[in-house]
Amino acid sequence: MRHRPDVLRGWTAGFEAGRLIAYQKNNSPELEPGIHFFTWVRKMVVDAYYTHPAGIAQVGYMGNSSMTTFQAPAEAIEYAIKRSPFKE
Description:
By secondary structure, the protein is mostly helical.
């Protein structure tokens, strides 16, 4: 695995060219197949949990339904306005 400047202290996570990147900083050619496998397994477990009724209930997903109004949190609006290049 080549050095990437956006990775802190050798830890990597995410995708690169359509494949999973390991979550381990001591990656070696001998360990790479196992690292990729367990990274994939971890992703599948999280996906399975959060598509199961227990995981859906944990995040409070209410399904696709219509809303009469939508009120954004005041903190989110203040955050966006403070960082906006178009602020007054």
